[in-house]
Write a structure and sequence with these properties.
By secondary structure, the chain is of the alpha+beta class. The protein has one domain (about 30-120): Immunoglobulin-like, CATH 2.60.40. Helix content is about 20%, strand content about 40%. It contains one helix and seven strands; from the N terminus they run αβββββββ. It has one helix at about 1-25; strands spanning about 35-45, 45-55, 60-70, 85, 90-95, 105-110, 115-120. Strands 4-5-3-7 form a four-stranded antiparallel sheet, with no helix packed on it. The protein binds 2-acetamido-2-deoxy-beta-D-glucopyranose. 2-acetamido-2-deoxy-beta-D-glucopyranose binds near residues 40, 51 and 104. 2-acetamido-2-deoxy-beta-D-glucopyranose binds next to strand 1, strand 2 and strand 6.
């Protein structure tokens, strides 16, 4: 029984690997945008400060990136207007996200912001 489970796990892992490889070879999309959020350790206006790096592993730069980011408008840390603009819970990135050059900015929030990609267009 344990053996069967191990084999199933291996097959699933292999399938997963194959699909990732496939996606990278063909084209990139919304799912190729990732968010790396860390606390900076500072507290601003009683809210912890975070730094977020919006990254892509895609070989094409991603433009027109829009991200759901409800709560970010309440940041006590002023957002970098050259990088991001918040419009009704939607973050509009002012710069493309390219491999090796993520869009990085700071914000503060009481509850964690749930970043989810709404739009991203590979620019190849
Ligand atoms: C974010 O905040 C940290 C600590 O306050 C600061 O060192 C860093 O330069 C800031 N990063 C950006 C991208 O503004």
């Amino acid at each position: 029984m344990a053996k069967a489970a191990a084999v199933l796990f291996l097959v699933a892992a292999l399938l997963c690997l194959m699909r990732t490889g496939d996606a990278q070879r063909r084209f990139c999309g919304k799912s190729d945008i990732t968010f790396l959020v860390r606390k900076t350790g500072k507290v601003v206006g009683s809210q912890p400060e975070y730094v977020v790096a919006i990254e892509t592993s895609c070989s094409c730069p991603m433009k027109d990136v829009r991200v759901w980011c409800g709560g970010l408008e309440d940041s006590a840390v002023p957002l970098d207007a050259g990088k991001v603009e918040v419009d009704e819970g939607m973050c509009v990135l002012k710069q493309p996200v390219a491999r090796g050059s993520p869009v990085v900015f700071n914000y503060s929030c009481e509850v964690p912001v749930n970043f989810r990609v709404f739009n991203a267009a590979p620019d190849c």
